[in-house]
Amino acid sequence: MSSGINDVDGNLEKQLDEVKALQAIYAEDFQLLEKETSWFPHFKLSLRPERDNDDWCEHVRVHMIIQYNEGYPYRIPKIELENVKGISLEKIETLKNDLVQLAKTKVGEVMVLNLALHLQDSLRQFNTKKPKSFHEEMLWNQQIQQKFKDSEEQKKLANNRLQEEKFNKILEDKVRKRKNYIRKQINEVPESLTRTESLEIDKSIQSGEVKIKEDIKNKYHFLEDSDSQDEEKIELRKQYRWALNTQRFQNEFEVIEFLGQGGFGNVIKVKNKMDTRHYAIKIIHSNVKHFKNITTEVKLLSRLNHENIVRYYNSWMEVYQTSSEGSIASSESEEIYDDEEKSYDLSDVYFEKSDGQEENEDDNDEDDNEELIFEDEARFLYIQMEYCEKKTLRLYIDKNPNKNIDEIWRLFREIVDALVYIHGQGIIHRDLKPGNIFLDSQDQIKIGDFGLATTRRAKDLQDKSGICMPDSIQSLGFTGSLTLNIGTSYYISPELKTERGKYDQKVDIYSLGIIFFEMNYPPFQTLSERHEILTNLNNANVIFPDDFDENLVTQKTIIKKLLNHDPEVRLTSKELIHEFLQRLTIEDTKFNTVVESATANPLSKTFKYIVKSLFDQKYDEVCDVMYEDEGNRLNKFYNQKNILLQSKVQEILVSLFRLHGMVRIQTPLLMPQNKVHELSSDSPMTVMDQQGQLLCLPNNLRVPFARYVKRKRIQNLKCYNIDRVFHVKLPGLQPKEVIECSVDIVTPSKESSFPEGELLYILENVINKFPILYEKNCTFIVNHALLLRSFLLHCNIEEEQHIEFFKMVERQGDNKKSMRNILKSFHVADHNIDFSLKLLNKEEPLENIRKSLEFLLKSSRKISDLAYRGIDQLEKVLQYCEMFGITSTLKFQLGCLQKAYHFSGIFFQMKLKYYKEAPNGKKRFIQHTIASGGNYAQLVQKFKSSSQTANLPTIQPNVVGALIAFDVLVHILYEEKYEIPNKSDYLICSMEEKVNPKQRFQRALKYWDKNISGTLLYETQESWEKIKKICENEVISQAVVMKDSSVKTYDMFDNSQGKSQRKKKQTKGDGFSENPIENDPAAKSNDFHFKFVHINHKKVHGNSKIETAICSKLEGSLKWAPLNGSTIQVIAADLSKEVLDEIVFTNNLSCDRKNSSAKNCKSKDKQLTREVNESIKKLKNDNCGDCIILYSKQSDTYIIL
């Protein structure tokens, strides 16, 4: 739980996924709100009670406001209810408390949809119109009584229907028993069945009004009602037919046919009216049990994009209003038609049931309860998926007694490829079986039905033994027969069958073993045969049937390895490919050979033709629409403030870099694919140009710069860059974009550690440039490549394996458990692992490095030489840090391994560590990596010189640099409420049609000519509220509103604070300044007139000097305000700022109130207060000047009246 709370990026991704789903579900009732202090989603849902009937009217409504935090969903969000209609505040508080209690029970999972549905259901009891008079109350009571009578009548009708349905059920039970009897008779038919005997059996079957398809021994489960084959309409249960009448579904799709059932829903084939393509749409009623599993399936499908996985396209919810006549009286009555309404045609898709009862559907009729509870309003979830035109793997196995071995290998390889991808995404399917594996029209494998999958990743799944522990087997749906919800029992691994069992991705591998056996074995003749053979396979000894083909030696070996009862020994999907399937080709071998031959020579005509054909593809409007613009999810919630903060941070960093003589160097955007990219597990985004060459977008700024240095033969340079880098996401999505800042120093000499010292000094000043970060603990975690090499050699890990070691750490993480497994994989002795882990995780002062690494210094000569050189260089860096006056903490950690394969000398991470108060009042430890870098001269040498410089002598410059996580820095400053600059000084607009756009433009030109920034609005604004909203969104503190005869400026924010905050004083209800200032900022200098108010009217010498000082202060402070060329009356008084604030406040009050306010002042201030009020009154009456300013000599501050 704690790891989930601290995984801010992972939590934010879950939050954004939930917001996207809520937007699709609630549409116009969903509103994204502006975030003032956090970039976590903040939104509002307008909720009303669920509809009860056709006469439903809305009498209550509530807005539920949700503010996520960094810990959600492992911490409940902030919940507010407002804009209440029809409910008392007391009841609203009760509803809010109920929501909070419900949220606490949902901690650990996304919960807002559940909260919203709960609130809508709770609002029903309040959705009554209150009578306004006695007569209305009487009519209202009569209506209630009439509704009660109607309800009783409906109950009677429903009871009659129930009796009728019970009678029908008895008949259906008799039909089912007849079918079972026939099936038993079929199973007992000898193999030497003659044509005459077959006709007699067929005759007996027809007498029971049941028709049997040919090949009755193998197709016993294709029994159908004789009259059902004549029906061409879609066989949906009545409830699901309502789903076809919803507005969006009818507008976008044309229904083709009913496919079947699976994963809690009915599935139909449709044609999209826009792109004319066929899709499969799963329709699920929102009241169905295990709705959480369904939403899980939607979320998992949306993350997956692989050629062997059923493609997810879209999902949405719709509501359908049903009539009272169509109401369902009994939930059990509809289920009895389930078996008869399924389609078993070989040309269709048969969705194998997840309850494992496809073999014996009638043994437990009491369990066949309908999972839906229907009311007058039906809410449906639609999942639009790829349509697999042909069949499932189950039908392929049953249909082909003599299977082609090469075809089986191809299908098996495709299944394994899909599992490698699924497991790589941290997903366990948990319900893998032939009925959930589809084949499309090209016989390509498509794994689907993720309703029971789980997303717990390896680090969350594993306990001390490395295996996952589920919360409860019962909670996952196990019953005594182990066939309810976790797939058919034959495919379930032993660890999953065990109560409180431990499991990981290898449960899917076990299921694959049973599937692979069925693919290589003839179809079963009877149920008993299937049960016996598969039960023996489930045995710990994996007992094969005697008639298993002796020539399938490799297949038998694979099946045994897949069905091993010990999960530790059982193969993973990747190991399966590496050990057995490396040489198998997925596509036709001849075709692959032709393609490989054609692409082997980029200069050949065939290669050029292939590339040209790829680039000559026609514009596809559907692909254009479907291509998602989700390169940076955080940008969805970026507002003007974030953008302005980014600009300010960049400006501050650039000024710091230029102090050190740095220039900006932008390297080319694209670079050819290189072996350097193979060092990292984070593959770059790769594209192809028209010549067929593979080019990479940068996934960090260090690698392109290293190549730039090598090819340009640079030996002396100080530079920086702030630019975007790109990370690969799913196909069909924009790459993830991150803004990164690089700082690099290139020198010709490698002897001095001076560049490293200056680099650390620059990075420390990055933090010092932002005073709000002073209190944070800035720490440099330092390591050295030579020390790391010596340590790995000491662990008997050879130098050729070091790169692979670093890549494994990058893939699996550097936590204690992962590091233990990695060291084991390199055959490090068990007694050395604990010592190594302790050393890798230990942080200690840089001064103590010799003592802690003494064991390396006493090791073999090679190891000790490396250790001595590394320690000497670190001590030199420490000396330079002291010389530069670096005050940040420097600590050594041998386990600092980030991108270690890039560095040949010192490398480090700069971290901010601090405690932040959580909403519950507790302090939470926060740690951010702000920068990382070091000496990467070795990386530069991995690149080739350009063709023009290939014959020149080789140079080996010393290169040190750091990458600053620019986005992380901006995020921290935003969270800490760092000062954000205004976008511009003024918003130039008008509220009168008489002021045409030309006049507004001329006014803006005057401001711009005076070097005063202003945002010009082209349209006439309708209201003050709209202007105010624009100023808030655009972060503009003042609005210049033009009228036909004047120009008035309205202060939107308090200038004295220097921040974008609203005025708390001197404002009207609309947020604008009480006294607009009539002036023009583009005019000439101001004319100041002074009046000094002193105690006892004593003459004060040196007033002229005071006037000059005040003028200087006001001119400097007001140079951005539109007061130029105005006559300004200044009243200077020996009063505090607080007293002046009181004077301004009372300025619009009655004389009595002014006098009473003056009485509250201190005795020495009373006289001065009266004189100031009188002076203000006189200046206003005489209409002297354009503006009055009150100046406090005590605090050296002023207020514009």
UniProtKB/TrEMBL annotation:
Which sites bind ATP? K282
Protein kinase domain mapped to chain residues: 253-581
> Matching Gene3D superfamilies, A to Z?
Bira Bifunctional Protein, Domain 2, Phosphorylase Kinase, domain 1, Transferase(Phosphotransferase) domain 1, Ubiquitin Conjugating Enzyme
Pfam families in the cross-refs: Pkinase, RWD, tRNA-synt_His
Q: Give the CDD domains listed for this entry.
A: RWD_GCN2, STKc_EIF2AK4_GCN2_rpt2
Q: What class of enzyme is it?
A: transferase
Annotated region (Disordered), positions in chain: 1052-1083
For the RWD domain, which residue ranges apply? 17-126
**Enzyme Commission number(s) from the entry:** 2.7.11.1
Any single Gene Ontology cellular-component annotation: nucleus
Keywords attached to this Swiss-Prot or TrEMBL record, sorted alphabetically, are: ATP-binding, Kinase, Nucleotide-binding, Serine/threonine-protein kinase, Transferase
Gene Ontology process terms (BP): negative regulation of cytoplasmic translational initiation in response to stress; positive regulation of metabolic process
List the catalytic activities from the record.
L-seryl-[protein] + ATP = O-phospho-L-seryl-[protein] + ADP + H(+); L-threonyl-[protein] + ATP = O-phospho-L-threonyl-[protein] + ADP + H(+)
InterPro entries, sorted: aa-tRNA-synth_II/BPL/LPL (IPR045864), CC_SR_Kinase (IPR050339), HisRS-like_core (IPR041715), Kinase-like_dom_sf (IPR011009), Prot_kinase_dom (IPR000719), Protein_kinase_ATP_BS (IPR017441), RWD_dom (IPR006575), Ser/Thr_kinase_AS (IPR008271)
| MF GO annotations | ATP binding; eukaryotic translation initiation factor 2alpha kinase activity
Family under the similarity heading: Belongs to the protein kinase superfamily. Ser/Thr protein kinase family. GCN2 subfamily.
Q: What is this protein called?
A: non-specific serine/threonine protein kinase
